[in-house]
Design goal:
91 residues; alpha+beta; Arc Repressor Mutant, subunit A; two-stranded antiparallel sheet; 3 helices; 2 strands
Length: 91
């Protein structure tokens, strides 16, 4: 039987953004140390139960793109196969 997860939980975008920024500051997610979208989802929606990491990434993707557009976070992608992910831009 299929069950719905997190059906009784709500979190506004501002809270998710604050959680993401706090996480990235705490773990020093810089250009040299980017993190995947799924990590942002897990920390943005703390207390939520995601079956797979892709669910967390999907849940936070729109918020992360908006944060990137506003210059709060950046995306790093190396064509050489190095680190890729999101990092906190310096204020």
């Amino acid at each position: 039987m299929k069950t719905k997860r997190n059906i009784d939980k709500t979190t506004d975008a501002a809270t998710v953004e604050a959680n993401i920024v706090a996480f990235m500051q705490k773990y020093r997610c810089t250009y040299a140390n980017p993190v995947p979208l799924s990590c942002l989802g897990q920390w943005g929606f703390r207390g939520y139960d995601f079956k797979r990491s892709q669910g967390a990434a999907f849940a936070v993707s729109r918020i992360a793109k908006d944060m990137e557009r506003r210059g709060v976070i950046g995306w790093r992608s190396d064509i050489d196969g190095g680190s890729r992910g999101y990092y906190l831009r310096s204020a």
